[in-house]
Amino acid sequence: MVTFLMPRFVPRLVSFEGMGRRSASVTERNIACLRSMYWVVMVSGFVEPVLYLFSIGVGVGALIGDLPLPGGRLVGYAEFVAPAMLASAAMTGALSETTFNFFGKMKFMRLYEGILATPVRPIEIALGELAWAMVRGVLYSAAFLGIMVAMDLTSAARALAMFPATVLIGFAFGALGMTVSTVIRSWQDFDLIVAGQFALLLFSGTFVPPTAYPAVVRWLIEVTPLYRSVDLVRALSLGPVGWTQALDVLYLLAVLVIGLTVAGRRMEKMLCK
Amino acid sequence: MVAGAYVLEYHLVNYRRTWRSSALSTLVLPLLTMLGFGVGVGSYVSGGVEGAPYLDWIVPGLIASTAVQTAIGEATWPVLSYFEWLKVYFAQAAAPLRVADILGGHLAFMAFRVLTAAAAFLVVAAVFGTIHSWWAPLTLVVSVLTGLAVAAPSVAYSSSISSDSYLAILMRFAVLPMSLFSGVFFPVESLPVVLRWAAYVLPLWHGVDLSRDAMLGLAPGWIGLLHVVYLLIWCVAGWAVAHRCFRRRLVV
Amino acid sequence: MESLIHARGLVKRFEGFTAVDGIDVDVRRGEAFGFLGPNGAGKSSTMRMIGCVSPPTDGVLRILGLDPRRDGPKIRAKLGVCPQLDNLDIELSVRENLTTYARFFGIPRRVARQRADELLEFVQLTERADSKVEPLSGGMKRRLTIARALVNEPEIVLLDEPTTGLDPQARHLVWERLFRLKQQGVTLVLTTHYMDEAEQLCDRLVVMDGGRIVAEGSPRALIEQYSTREVVELRFAAESQEAYAEKLAGLGERLEVLPDRILLYVADGDKAAAEVQRRSLAPASVLVRRSSLEDVFLHLTGRTLVD
Ligand SMILES: Nc1ncnc2c1ncn2[C@@H]1O[C@H](COP(=O)(O)OP(=O)(O)OP(=O)(O)O)[C@@H](O)[C@H]1O
Ligand SMILES: [Mg+2]
């Protein structure tokens, strides 16, 4: 009797019904506006991290030689930076779609106002846009991993393990980017975002191990999302994998969930006045 | 030419609204690069490069590269939007200005932006003690020359397209590779022959080499003269094409 | 009668500023209902609350028997919205604007394509189907926005100033299409500050001013209640119209002095005009016309509607 009555008294605070379909319709809209030129831009996106890999990993790597890992093992510089390039490319890709483009659609194209007049909810717009950013990010990551394997910077099995990690990184940064987009006021604030992103890129153990920095800076680095991502991908690529990496995954999952929730709430506040 | 100065004034007045946020990127980004790359990565380059410590070697290249980034930034999106969205050029063309004034005034503003960015970087470089020659201020001249050598053709390109997808293509296939493989981070001599020649053809490497000579106090020699002439060719040819593109769109 | 939209004491406040100040509204199935009022009256704010994209600050609001606070998506699925400013998707073509929008309602692709073609026909945009949105004229964009509002075959269509900024020909085309919708049994809710529009389209309307409803009824009933049958508009060449107001005393039921003219409210316009001539006041121009909602508004608020 009790079990029979229960469902009626449970208040429906959040309804997940139809959420997937409605989010997908937002992604679909992005696919519909792909034009010939934009295709070229999209497909060629994977070139960028590859160029970095050749310039910094191979070119500068020739000046550096081998680097010692924490365990004492020596690895070539390209092997050391490649996973970090992968992680930061996942970050950059997710951020460019969810900050610049997302902000433009929200503020200037007033695209979301039109969508919100339909059954689609703010959180579903956020999810749909995020999924779209991920479709691209996933393609780029796969291409980059292929190149890493071809250059013998990692093994095929390890590349397979790194792939889902890059997807998670992309989702986490995408959610973070959206939250940031709902906070900033104008295009000028993007200079701040670019500067922040650049700082992350330079100091997150990407080009040199964080042990190269003074203790205080090092602890600061340890808590940045990009460092956690680099740590995860690098461990998967070069080994060994341990509890720290489980922590990395939890950290990124938390960023994803919190980011999405906050972004959805703030969008609702901004667009549904 | 006086009329061109009015156009420059317009851009400067406009810039007053946004200089604060751009000041952040012109000062903070070089500082970060310096710390993260020069000092961080530099500490792992044990032997130095071409007889100089890595930090000293990379700074002149970073200055030239900053000049190019700034020039490209001003010569692409703003130009496209002044034609396509904001229609600023059309408004200027309705005033008694010649095409050369409109183009020249905007390029002069770009030169100004390049100069301030390079100067900011030079100050940061001085703080880090990477200036070893009285010739160092010449880097500013080199930066403006290099900046204009990429700005002029970029303006021509931006004025002949209608969608920003083409700008993304320019960035991805021309600007980024040029920035990464023009001897800024490692000597071009270690590149495979084909890529090395690509670096020789593009403008940035010439600016990097000149800038390095000035900062490290090396004699540029006749190669230096060749660099200057070659960069000037880019400027003049870029101007000629840009002028034609502007004419085609503004005088109809 | 079933009430599709039911509001009691509806309030909308923005950071201390009250845009909608406790209004009561009931819209019945199949009717065309209008919100009439000057700039800033709170029409759009009300429409956005009804569209479930703006939570009410206070009061009761039920749409199709549901609570917007809880069932927003469910209600919006049955609404068609044409906002005051077109927010068409500039990255898509005319047809794609309809098909992608249909997908937001979960309409299958095949159905969406078919319905898009029908709607383009309905708003006479079939020839422009593959064009981008940007180069369309204002009237075409408006028609496309209206078509987009119909893509989910809504029970209620909300139209916020559907014809503002259009030329007379374009307006008539829009009116004609809206009239056809009404004949098909669709409930229309629209805002306007054009009297002729309200008189043409609305079965019932409310006059809003400063966030409140100041009158309610059918256009005809409102005119009968708040105005006379005819109006004489007099313009005098002199600097001030005021001076002539006294000399017109006793001529009509009521008299309004505007900066550029005097309005005389009378049952028989021609008779009053003749009387003006007889008193040899020699106005620069005389116009006799029927009373309109404009006059109702003037009477209720002491202000003209379109300034
Ligand atoms: N998001 C907002 N924040 C603050 N004030 C607002 C907001 N939206 C509307 N208002 C204010 O509420 C009042 C009513 O605005 P509303 O747009 O509802 O008027 P309206 O009747 O539609 O006028 P119009 O004929 O000009 O469209 C105005 O004074 C407006 O400034
Ligand atoms: Mg309005």
Automatic annotation (TrEMBL), chain A:
Q: Do the record's keywords include Transmembrane? A: yes
Q: Where exactly are the transmembrane stretches of this chain?
A: 38-64, 84-104, 125-150, 156-180, 192-221, 241-263
Top-level taxon: Bacteria
Give the primary localization class. Answer: membrane
Topology in the lipid bilayer: Multi-pass membrane protein
Which ranges carry the ABC transmembrane type-2 domain?
40-270
Provide the protein's localization: Cell membrane; Membrane
Name the UniProt key words of this record, in alphabetical order: Antibiotic resistance, Cell membrane, Membrane, Transmembrane, Transmembrane helix, Transport
Q: Which family does it belong to?
A: Belongs to the ABC-2 integral membrane protein family.
This chain belongs to the protein called Transport permease protein
In which organism is this protein found?
Paractinoplanes durhamensis
The organism's taxonomy opens as: Bacteria, Bacillati, Actinomycetota, Actinomycetes, Micromonosporales
TrEMBL record, chain B:
Subcellular compartments: Cell membrane; Membrane
Q: How does it sit in the membrane?
A: Multi-pass membrane protein
Q: Entry's PROSITE patterns?
A: ABC_TM2
Q: Which keywords belong to this entry? A: Antibiotic resistance, Cell membrane, Membrane, Transmembrane, Transmembrane helix, Transport
Q: Which InterPro entries does its entry note?
A: ABC2_TM (IPR013525), ABC2_TM_bact-type (IPR047817), ABC_2_transport (IPR000412), Nod_factor_ABC_transporter (IPR051784)
Q: Name one Pfam family in it.
A: ABC2_membrane
Which positions fall inside the ABC transmembrane type-2 domain?
A: 21-249
Chain ranges passing through the membrane: 24-45, 57-80, 107-128, 134-157, 222-242
PANTHER family membership: NODULATION PROTEIN J
Q: Which family does it belong to?
A: Belongs to the ABC-2 integral membrane protein family.
Q: What is this protein called?
A: Transport permease protein
**Lineage, top ranks:** Bacteria, Bacillati, Actinomycetota, Actinomycetes, Micromonosporales
UniProtKB/TrEMBL annotation, chain C:
What subcellular locations does the record give?
A: Cell membrane
Q: Which residues form the ABC transporter domain?
A: 5-235
Give the way it sits in the membrane. Answer: Peripheral membrane protein
The cross-references to PROSITE patterns, in alphabetical order and at most eight, read: ABC_TRANSPORTER_1 (PS00211), ABC_TRANSPORTER_2 (PS50893)
Q: Say yes or no: keyword Ligase present.
A: no
Q: Report which superkingdom the organism of origin falls in.
A: Bacteria
The alphabetized UniProt keywords are: Antibiotic resistance, ATP-binding, Nucleotide-binding, Transport
Q: From which residue to which does any coiled coil extend? A: none
Query: In which family does this protein belong, per the annotation?
Result: Belongs to the ABC transporter superfamily.
User: What name goes with this protein?
Assistant: ABC transporter
